[in-house]
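Section 5.1 Outputs to date
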Amino acid sequence: MKPEAGDIVKVITEDEEIEGILMPRPEILGQDVTVVKLGNGYNIGILNKKIKKIEAIEKYKLKKTEKKKLEFNKSLPIVSILSFGGTISSKVDYRTGGVHADYTAEDFVEMCPEIKRIANIRARKVTGIMSEDMNHEDWKLMAREVAKELNSDAAGVVVTQGTDTLHYSTAALSFFLENKNKPVVFTAAQRSIDRGSSDALMNLICAVTAAAKSDIAEVMVCMHGTINDDYCILVRGTKVRKMHTSRRDAFRPINEMPLAKVYDDKIEITNKNYKKRNDGKAKVNDAFENKVGLLLIHPGMNPDIMDFFIEKKYKGIVLATTALGHVPTERKNFSLLEKLKKAIGSGILVVISSQALYGRVHPYVYTNLRKLSLDLNAVFVEDMLPETAYVKLGWALGQAKDREKAKEIMLKNIAGEMTERSDAGSFLY
């Protein structure tokens, strides 16, 4: 029988015999290397061309623990957990290093028994996709599945996915879901479950607490509030951004204070500006125009880049401009004005946001800003984040019959994406 990963094997080479556990081959090594874990715990790679024979000494069987059926506690609410990828509920097989999960309610409770005290869990895996590979079709599926749970007997919904584009997903659902009637709480893990410093368990506990007990009927992110296990924060889905590659408190509120701090047994409201639970029915409005772009303005950029959007017949583009809304306008061969004029003439809706993130764009402070606003009729979107503006633009163009109607939608505060006055305290939070 052909040896498989996890088997104890004897590898016979030209020079020696080696015993150990046959390991899964990392993709980076290619197909010409066999990896074996020695008795001392170290892994070694052996070139296949030197191997004469591999014998299985002992076959490996992954132990399957019998899952106890969860008892329904009538005194607790129901929380639905929908998984769209990410490692937050994964288990590690320490013999092979493999990660696996069934994403059932029993899996979550086995991994994190504390949530049994908070709610009755109903869990299922919808998709398993890397978050950087997600697009608008995944957001549509997500919105439909979440809406089903919002209109069920669940008290709230927890959504798990990878962290890289989490803030795009929360922005999308903030617009796609109409008449939100219960909490929709996204959570994830910055550090995988097999690491001692993993943030997965606390994030999950706090997310379930927020979904079960919170009065906030918004799409939110629930992640660590500090690098320690002090509390998690609930941040509005249109006002959150991943601000660090690896810190446990990477997701921060931008231009607005978090909605709440969440501990394992209580919720402390920190921002009273939110929509409350209601008896209405959630609806999905996910019409989306895919031909939208997001362009980072930078020194020395070639204006000809706009030709791509024009030739490909894009319908809208968000410019992540510098500071208050600046783009290159004065230097010869570097002015974007003529190209933007051409783009707008071709039917493209141009939206101005700021890559500075904190603060807001302003159409009248400087001459070149007035040119963009008055001469070109570009849309300045206050303190909306570039990523949120990108998602909203696709959604607005999906709703509108013409560019002017889409512009009206972009300037209307739909899901807390714009504030009348940016909260200065959030910059220091």
